[in-house]
């Protein structure tokens, strides 16, 4: 069953959870096991989110109590480490920011959580997200899960590698010139560079030159990317 879960897209997971055919705890454990199995070779995940399993248990309780469920209820997701996550290391791929822990979530992260998704981990970027490969002096090199001698691209290479390897069904990356689309192409997943201004950049770093940056979703299916985009889009009054 674990193999089946990690091959599902986020939409299918959410559907099965909502129909009580799959437990959020089962889903989370399957992805945690997958990370433990393959991440030492791929190095896509750089920080685990404390409390992910507890959050999955709460999500399961909500299903059992017939609570109203969000469109991504119980679905794990990962976030590029240049995007803030409250209480979880966000080191931006740089020794300069080693140990940095934000107090608040980036807007796009908060919106996915509000839809019921559960943060499971942060993924590796190049330093400051400025490279077409994913390597830095703090958390090292990310490898392409299809061939460990190859690159997954950059700067959202950790995100694309995690999704391609079954460690996450859904993720958030960012793009300056090719940083979502290149890694997606290198690893066989879907990455979407949204029109600038559609997804708030609040909580993304670097801030300058912000007018050239784009946040976007990554997943293994177009429908997942479309769903995540619809949930993250819209002004936040701060960006």
The H-and-E topology, N to C, reads as HHHEHEHEEEHEHEEH
- What is the count of helical runs? 8
Shape: globular
Report how far apart the termini are: 42 Å
Assembly classification: single chain
Task: Calculate Rg over CA atoms.
Answer: 16 Å
Residue runs with pLDDT of under 50 for 5 or more positions: none
Structural class: alpha/beta
Mean pLDDT: 96
Q: Got a strand count?
A: 8
Please outline the helices and strands.
Layout: H1 2-7, H2 10-18, H3 24-42, E1 45-48, H4 52-64, E2 76-80, H5 107-114, E3 118-123, E4 135-136, E5 140-141, H6 157-164, E6 170-175, H7 181-187, E7 190-191, E8 214-219, H8 222-232
Parallel strand pairs: 2-3, 2-6
Antiparallel strand pairs: 1-3, 4-5, 6-8, 7-8
Helix pairs in contact: 3-4, 6-7
Task: Describe, in plain words, how this protein is organized in 3D.
- With 239 residues, the chain is of the alpha/beta class.
- It is 34% helix and 14% strand.
- The protein is built from eight helices and eight strands, in the order αααβαβαβββαβαββα.
- The protein has helices at 2-7, 10-18, 24-42, 52-64, 107-114, 157-164, 181-187, 222-232; strands at 45-48, 76-80, 118-123, 135-136, 140-141, 170-175, 190-191, 214-219.
- The strands form two sheets. The protein has a six-stranded mixed sheet with strand order 1-3-2-6-8-7. Strands 4-5 form a two-stranded antiparallel sheet.
- Helix 6 runs parallel beside helix 7 (181-187).
- The protein starts with a helix and ends in a 7-residue tail after the last helix.
- The mean pLDDT is 96.
């Amino acid at each position: 069953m674990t193999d089946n879960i990690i091959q599902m897209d986020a939409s299918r997971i959410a559907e099965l959870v909502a129909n009580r055919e799959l437990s959020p705890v089962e889903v989370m454990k399957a992805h945690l096991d997958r990370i433990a199995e393959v991440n030492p070779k791929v190095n896509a995940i750089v920080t685990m989110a404390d409390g992910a399993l507890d959050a999955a248990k709460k999500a399961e309780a909500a299903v059992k109590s017939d609570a109203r469920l969000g469109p991504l209820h119980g679905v794990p997701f990962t976030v590029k480490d240049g995007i803030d996550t409250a209480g979880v290391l966000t080191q931006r791929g740089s020794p300069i920011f080693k140990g940095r822990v934000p107090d608040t979530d980036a807007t796009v992260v908060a919106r996915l959580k509000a839809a019921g998704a559960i943060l499971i981990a942060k993924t590796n970027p190049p330093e400051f997200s400025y490279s077409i490969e994913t390597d830095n002096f703090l958390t090292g090199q990310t490898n392409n899960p299809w061939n460990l001698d190859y690159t997954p691209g950059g700067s959202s290479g950790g995100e694309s590698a995690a999704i391609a390897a079954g460690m996450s069904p859904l993720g958030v990356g960012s793009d300056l010139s090719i940083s979502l689309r290149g890694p997606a192409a290198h690893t066989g997943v879907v990455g979407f560079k949204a029109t600038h201004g559609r997804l708030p950049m609040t909580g993304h770093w670097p801030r300058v030159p912000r007018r050239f940056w784009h946040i976007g979703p990554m997943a293994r299916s177009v429908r997942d990317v479309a769903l995540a985009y619809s949930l993250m889009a819209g002004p936040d009054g701060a960006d």
